[in-house]
Amino acid sequence: MPDENRFSGLGDVVEEEEPEKEVEVSADESSDREKDATENTATIDADEQMSSSSGPAFEFEDTTAKSVYVRPETLSVMDDAEFEVESVLRREHDVRDLTGREFHDALVRVAAEHPEEVAEIILSTRDIPFTEHD
After folding, report:
1. What percent helix, strand, coil does the chain show, rounded to 5?
2. How far apart are CA 25 and CA 119, in angstroms?
3. Residues 6+ positions from 82 with CB-CB distance below 8 Å
4. In which region does residue 3 sit, left (phi positive, over 0), alpha (psi from -120 to 50) or beta (all else)?
5. InterPro entries of this UniProt entry (predicted)?
6. DSSP assignment, residue 115?
7. What's the CA gap between 73 and 80, in Å, rounded?
8. pLDDT tens digits in sequence order for the chain, 134 residues long
9. From CA 96, how far away is CA 94, in angstroms rounded?
10. CA-to-CA distance for 96 and 48, rounded, in angstroms?
11. Which of 12, 64, 103, 114 is deepest in the core (most CB within 10 A)?
């Protein structure tokens, strides 16, 4: 490798280019701008589509991220279920803006309401017979 500095002169090239005006934006200001842009887009979309949908049931800020570990085949089943749910919402209720957070929240709530069925699936996956208890 030659002894020359392969990066020499790079600073001159960078300085010659007219840099774009950099504006430091706080996280709150950035969030507000994104929210405004999203609201403007949503307003335009709503005017164009005129659907009965009123937007997501809750804001992204109202959620908590949680990792879920599933096998690839289970993830495929979940993706298919999300597609089916979205189809039902569109076809039967004219809801066209389902968000992932709404789907995942509903999924967890349904599982929480049916613990026996969840336990049955876990036992089945472990090849353990399920017996109902009164």
Report:
1. 60, 0, 40
2. 49
3. 98, 100, 103
4. alpha
5. DUF7970
6. H
7. 11
8. 556 665 555 555 444 544 444 445 455 555 555 555 555 555 445 444 444 557 888 787 888 888 889 999 999 999 999 999 999 999 999 999 999 999 999 999 999 999 999 999 999 999 999 888 76
9. 6
10. 13
11. 103
Q: Which amino acid is at 117?
A: E
Q: Which of 71, 78, 87, 125 is nearest to 106 (CA)?
A: 78
Residue ranges of domains in the chain: 20-125
**Single-letter amino acid code for the residue at 75:** L
Tokens 């164009």 — which residue?
48
Q: Which amino acid is at 108?
A: V
Question: Tokens standing for 13?
Answer: 């090239």
